[in-house]
Amino acid sequence: MITKNDCLILLVELKENLPDKTEEIDNYIKKLVISSQPTIDIIRYINDNKELNLRSFYEKLRKSYNQGHSKLYKNIVNETSLEPKELICCLGALQQQVLLYYKLLDDISFLKQARFDEISKCLLHYYKTGDIIQCQKLLELFKADLKFMEEISK
Length: 154
Fold this sequence. Notes:
Radius of gyration: 17 Å
Number of helices: 9
Order of helices and strands: HHHHHHHHH
Largest sheet: none
Helix content: over 70%
Distance between the termini: 18 Å
């Protein structure tokens, strides 16, 4: 997910690129600094002025599902109904899609925002122990991230 530090960096970039909105951006920076984590209105403001790579990634997954090319989006949304093997395959497919999308970007923070490290650790844990619980919890987080990104697009 997008961290407080990510938002701060993005707001500073916006401030440099949108000098006519300096005062407005300063207000969002102040709000971000005093909060424990970024709020939906801060992330929405950033996305409205510079599309977030994470949001466009989830949008790409949704469009791919709607066009009948991939079931990944559906599997994330319906994570509770997945069998253990399907769940592992879903996380593996998600990891691959994150890498393929990252290849198109010039933004290393995307890997962190897309939880690439968490997927890797979770899959490794499963391969070593056979414990599926962490994988289920991680997929629940992805579902929450996906819904959050859809919410900021409204």
